[in-house]
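SUBJECT: A protein chain and its fold
Encoding: whole-number codes for local backbone shapes
Chain under study, with its fold:
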Amino acid sequence: MDRAQLADFLRTRREALQPEDVGLPRGPRRRTRGLRREEAAALSGMSTDYYSRLEQQRGPQPSPPMLAAIARGLHLSLAERDHLFRIAGHNPPPRSGSDHISPGLMRIIGRLGDTPAQVINELAETLWQTPLAAALLGDETRYTGAARSTYYRWFTDPAARLIFPEEDHPRHSRFFASELRAAYSRQGTGSRAELLVERLLEVSEEFARYWSAHEIGAPRVEPKRFRHSELGEIETHCQVLLDPDQAQTLLVYTATPGSADDEKLRLLPAVGPRSTGADAGRPSSGTGQDLP
């Protein structure tokens, strides 16, 4: 670990970011060039003290998950992310199927603070959520192992279905199986998608039925309805933005302006992170060994 290089790199990347780049107000009294340390720390999901010690060459060696969080928070490119890992004493993660979110997509996310939105990869693993998405869906970034995939949780953990009306479940099952087959087709044999399919075929008869239909391009469930313990049913429309270079998808949930559903979405900040249903805090049946 090269503490001096790490500290200098973090400082220069932080100072190169402007508040507008990450959806923050500049304010009339800002004298700091670029972002403040506390802002960079918040964007990276860590304490200001921890981040500051890294810039002051006195912090501990950051772990790969912490480095990945810093790379997202500072909107680093893939080349910059790899450099960050190396000077911190770690091998960079593989670029194929990477969870790294591009700076352009991160800039879009930074402007969606008042909207439920999240980024997922080809296996429906949630890489990033806005606070309102966590309030609507639960914290989907907390899972580990195969349960990181929405597809896996859907077919193995009944709690994962509680946020959707029961009458919509068959359409979700059909869509998820179809999307996983498309991911398997793109990734091929020996891929993480193939391993996920093999595990689901072993444990879920329902998945096996949908998989045997060999359906490609099943329609997305629209409108998408959610059940909320405090706000009741919320009907949304899901806008989709694809990042083909990273094989990632930005999902943005909106409601018809002026509707009761729109008002419920506006109430989500007062409700806070979802604490019922799939995000009730009990361990998911799919946690455990991760997909390679």
